[in-house]
Specification:
Blueprint (H helix, E strand, L loop, with lengths): L1 H14 L9 E7 L2 E4 L15 E3 L5 E3 L8 H10 L5 E5 L2 H9 L9 H6 L4 E3 L7 H5 L10 E4 L3 E6 L2 H22 L5 E2 L3 H13 L24 E2 L14 H20 L5
Parallel strand pairs: 6-7, 9-10
Antiparallel strand pairs: 1-2, 1-5, 2-3, 3-4, 5-8, 7-8
This protein binds zinc ion (ZN).
Length: 271
């Protein structure tokens, strides 16, 4: 059953062009000290039950015709750090990976679905793939983020099921792609207001998904670094957003000033 799910997810990753060659890897923790994972040097489109491997939490191979993925240490670090993590999927979805290449995370509070299922994305700096040092780069973020950009490399997601860990790749990659398209429109992005973002985080908490922002004040939920094309309605630092005049207030002020100028020029009220 679980092997069939891993095979199905491998096919989805390949069909969506989230993996190339033998790239990407999938694992599922079937017991306290046993993890099923994909083998090295095998396309995710060509997985079969026979080639899947089983390892313990130290990385020793217990079963399987293939040799365990070289990214086993990354998967195991996540399982050891996060008891809720039952599945880990690592792939190279192009749009999210583009963010990983430039060392930036996408802004929050733009698309509701992304907020609920992924939300704040973490960025782990580059290390040589397959090494213990690489595996450990995710540790500072993995308890509070289910989706991490791996510097100059790709994406890793954890979830309760393999299917869900693949969904998060879809959600984050589509999000990054949509942001890239929106940035080309030449109009600043409109942000979901903090009080509405709080509603989304409440849904997220009910679903049992992690987020580093659960305990933040409403006005801090959407604080993010600058984004190309800009973001409007950014609440910025706490207390600042309410000080900013609304569009209508600005319009009224402009009209008042214009009226005054015209009055001065014409020596009477403007019509
Ligand atoms: Zn990779």
């Amino acid at each position: 059953m679980i092997k069939q799910e891993i095979i199905r997810v491998g096919r989805k990753l390949w069909d969506r062009q989230y993996v190339d060659g033998n790239g990407g890897n999938i694992s599922y923790r079937i017991a306290e000290n046993a993890v099923i994972c994909t083998p090295t040097l095998c396309s995710k489109a060509d997985l079969t039950p026979e080639v899947l491997c089983m390892v313990d939490l130290e990385g020793n191979q217990l079963a399987g015709a293939g040799k365990r993925t070289s990214e086993t240490p990354l998967h195991l670090e996540i399982y050891r750090a996060v008891p809720e993590a039952k599945a880990v999927v690592h792939a190279h979805p192009p749009h999210a990976t583009a963010y990983a290449l430039v060392g930036r995370v996408p802004p929050t509070c733009i698309v509701p679905e992304h907020e609920v299922f992924v939300g704040q994305v973490a960025y782990a700096p580059y290390e040589t793939p397959g090494t213990k040092a690489f595996a450990e780069t995710v540790l500072p973020f993995v308890k509070t983020h289910n989706t991490i950009l791996l510097g100059n490399h790709g994406v890793v997601c954890w979830a309760d099921t393999v299917t869900h860990a693949e969904w998060y790749h879809e959600v984050v990659d589509t999000y990054c792609r949509t942001l890239m398209l929106a940035a080309q429109l030449g109009t600043p992005l409109t942000r979901i207001p903090g009080e509405k973002a709080k509603d989304l985080l409440a849904v997220k908490k009910r679903l049992g998904l992690p987020d580093a922002r659960f305990d933040l004040e409403e006005c801090k939920l959407c604080d993010q670094p600058e984004f190309p094309g800009g973001i409007t309605a950014c609440p910025g630092a706490c207390g600042r957003s309410s000080d900013l005049p609304s569009d209508l207030e600005v319009e009224a002020m402009v009209k008042a000033v214009t009226d005054e100028v015209l009055k001065a020029l014409n020596g009477g009220p403007a019509h």
